[in-house]
Design goal:
Number of strands: 14
Bound molecules: aspartic acid
Order of helices and strands: HEHEHHEEHEHHEEEEHHHEEEEE
Strand content: 15-25%
Distance between the termini: 24 Å
Largest sheet: 9 strands, mixed
Radius of gyration: 18 Å
Strand order of the largest sheet: 1-13-12-2-6-7-3-4-5
CATH superfamily: (Glycosyl)asparaginase
Number of helices: 10
Helix content: 25-40%
Number of domains: 1
CATH topology: Glutamine Phosphoribosylpyrophosphate, subunit 1, domain 1
CATH class: Alpha Beta
Length: 331
């Protein structure tokens, strides 16, 4: 199986690949360097599909645009890419062969919108934004979310691409649900940005764990779990096993730890330590779990931490668009 970590498209990602080679950055270097120069605007996003997503976000941020518009535009790139198997169109289906999407968005004024278990809509992040801006609610799920999306003019589309369908049929031969750490059968794009006016926003979108039970919802559409923004403090987003992120109310925790004075990286690390501790308490095997957080504070400092080695994230600021390997609990 092709893993996103190992797979860099030759044409579209050529410049990104060069950056990965050139930078091979480590976070201590980045956070130290960044601390002295704290720049804005800046955008961070999870995994290497974040490089392309950041470019779209930067288009907005570099023109003095709003962080909210930037994160929506950014995450729509992997959502619309049929070759990305873990987000939006082309995402892997649940065990019944249905592609169900989770997404949420949060702005600098604590406006929030979210959709969960949404089918047939290519850009769940934009539906989440419409929930935020056009309804008295903050979250719509399943058929209700679909009906709302259709009422807003979003087209109904088949999201299950041929290759995903083939893989799902292959999986059906064993029907063994076992998300594999750092193998591409899940992953989320979480994106957080600080705009030139000093405002923070975030977006998070995924097709969730491949071959999940129908109706399963992960952390990604849950404000406080997969994403949190506090415009006075900072923002955080998560990827990995959603059940573990929800268990610790992950991104809210990271932001609260920054409020207590921790650096973005130290806050992510403490949240990961909590995942590790609860995993041990529950007598589960840490080897089967991946959780990664990225965080950005109000000053433009950023950092990350994850359970298993292998998580990376993309940072675009005035110095360019770089992929950074996150530091991890398991080496
Ligand atoms: N957090 C996502 C979920 O649990 C998946 C991922 O990011 O790997 O649905």
């Amino acid at each position: 199986m092709t893993t996103r970590r190992n797979f860099i498209k030759t044409s579209a990602f050529a410049s990104a690949a060069l950056l990965v080679d050139k930078v091979n950055a480590n976070e201590e270097f980045t956070s130290k360097e960044h601390k002295s120069e704290a720049l804005k605007p800046i955008v961070l996003s999870t995994w290497n599909f974040g490089l392309k997503a950041n470019e779209a976000a930067w288009e907005v941020l570099s023109k003095n645009g709003r962080a909210l518009d930037a994160v929506e535009a950014g995450v729509k790139i992997p959502e619309g890419d049929p070759t990305e198997r873990s987000v939006g169109y082309g995402g892997r289906p649940d065990r019944d062969g249905r592609v169900t999407l989770d997404a949420c968005i949060m702005d600098e004024n604590a406006n929030i919108g979210s959709v969960a278990c949404l089918e047939f809509i290519k850009h769940p992040i934009s539906v989440a934004r419409a929930v935020m801006e056009k309804t008295p609610h903050v979250m719509l799920v399943g058929d209700g979310a679909l009906q709302f999306a259709l009422s807003q003019g979003f087209p109904k589309e088949n999201l299950l691409v041929d290759d995903s369908e083939k893989e799902w049929k292959e999986w059906m031969k064993t029907s063994n649900y076992k998300p594999i750490v750092n193998i591409e059968n899940h992953d989320t794009i979480g994106m957080i940005a600080l705009d030139a006016n000093g405002n923070l926003s975030g977006a998070c979108t995924t097709s969730g764990m491949a071959y999940k039970m129908h109706g399963r919802v992960g952390d990604s559409p849950i404000i406080g779990a997969g994403l949190y923004v506090d415009n006075e403090i900072g923002a955080a987003t998560a990827t990995g096993h959603g059940e573990e992120v929800i268990r610790i109310a992950g991104c809210h925790l990271v932001v609260e730890l920054m409020r207590q004075g921790k650096s973005p990286k130290a806050a992510c690390k403490e949240a990961v330590n909590r995942v590790v501790k609860l995993t041990a308490n529950r007598k589960k095997n840490l080897k089967d779990i991946q959780v990664g957080f990225i965080a950005l504070n109000k000053k433009g400092e950023y950092g990350s931490y994850c359970v298993q080695n292998g998580f990376n994230y993309a940072v675009y600021d005035a110095k360019g668009n770089n992929l950074i390997n996150a530091d991890s609990y398991m080496k």
